[in-house]
Design a protein that fits this description.
293 residues; 10 helices; Site-specific DNA-cytosine methylase
């Protein structure tokens, strides 16, 4: 006779009692005492060391920019490289823009360190934070930085916060654009890296914007803020003469002649008069004859 198999009972194991918990206590309500660890205050020497190390971190990009500027100014790259840009690319992996941004940032950092409140040691820690300040005059840069620090509640402000502070100051200090199309101006760099190499050049206004002008030089067209322009106050006939000279220089410059010729043409682009001397006219005429069949 077949009999049905009996079901086995599942084995259950009781957890071993915890000697630290009384049987009547709820384990979820147990209080564990953690001994307090006393954190000693910094000594006066440690506070001094901390500030010194913080300053080194802050100044890292500043020191890099200063070093690059000295390498460039003393031409310490000349034994291995033809140009400073090639040297920075091979030695540091920098693009031309990256090297010049660091050098420009070092100038701004130095300005902030000298003019900001010495009791407030909040200074930039990287080039990206100070880049917006390049749009301001050196005298306004500390004001913008202090406003950015306040907006960041006493901490190092981000690029965005600095940019907002700069924008507010620019809106406050903007003046109406009174330039006219065809007017001849002089370009003033004023610590603007985008205008490097154009300082002192004349430029012909081709478009008038709210707070800038589009201008034409002998080799290109670019947009320049009002603070980077200064009118020569030429008469209409003189402005016309400069435009004609600009057309002639541009035609020869774009023909790709020797570098020495281009340097001569660039010097004509920095004249502070609306005419060419007899010798300048003769040399330019010879160059035109060389490129025009």
């Amino acid at each position: 006779m077949n009999t049905r198999p009996r079901k086995r009972k599942k084995a259950t194991s009781a957890a071993p009692p915890n000697p630290d918990i009384a049987p009547s206590e709820d384990p979820t309500s147990v209080t564990i005492d953690v001994p307090a660890v006393e954190v000693p205050e910094l000594t006066e020497q440690e506070q001094s060391d901390r500030l010194l190390l913080e300053r080194k971190v802050e100044r890292a990009f500043f020191e890099a920019g200063k070093a690059l500027a000295e390498l460039r100014d003393r031409r310490l790259y000349r034994s291995t490289h033809r140009t400073f840009e090639e040297y920075c690319r091979d030695r540091f992996g920098h693009s031309r823009r990256q090297s010049y941004l660091l050098m420009d940032a070092a100038v701004i950092f130095d300005n902030l360190e000298q003019k900001c409140d010495r009791n407030d040691h909040i200074l930039p820690t990287n080039e990206w934070q100070v880049r917006p300040l390049a749009k301001l005059e050196p005298d306004l840069q500390p004001e913008a930085w202090q406003q950015a620090v306040e907006s960041a509640k006493g901490k190092v402000p981000s690029h965005r916060i600095v940019k907002d502070a700069v924008q507010k100051i620019m809106e406050r200090t903007q003046v109406p654009n009174t330039y006219q199309i065809g007017e001849v101006c002089q370009i003033l760099t004023k610590d603007n890296p985008d205008l490097r190499g154009k300082g002192g050049c004349w430029a012909i206004v081709t478009a008038v914007n709210n707070f800038s002008c589009t201008v034409r030089t002998w080799d290109r067209e670019l947009t320049v803020g009002l603070k980077h322009l200064k009118s020569f106050n030429y008469l209409p006939d003189e402005c016309q003469q400069v435009q004609e000279i600009c057309d002639r220089i541009s035609q020869v410059y774009s023909s790709g002649l020797e570098e020495s010729v281009q340097r001569f043409l660039e010097s004509l682009g920095k004249l502070r008069r609306a005419y060419l001397t007899g010798l300048e006219e003769k040399v330019l005429g010879l160059l035109e004859a060389e490129i025009i069949p």
